[in-house]
Amino acid sequence: MQNQQESDLPAKLSQPALRALSGAGYWRLEQLVEVRETEIKKLHGIGPNALKQLRSALEARGLSFAGEITRGN
């Protein structure tokens, strides 16, 4: 199992959101491009604020959740 020091998820994510993502096997933003936002929403501990932070972090790298078009590209 990877440790959190290898994670590049937003540092300000709440602990429940981080636990939900790590419990589902997501440690890096690049992994989220393979999953739809609707699937991430289903994770217990992921709320609107966590989704906003994840979306912003992905967009900052020119990435997006699966099936979404990145704005500005």
TrEMBL record:
<protein>
    <recommendedName>
        <fullName>DNA-binding protein</fullName>
    </recommendedName>
</protein>
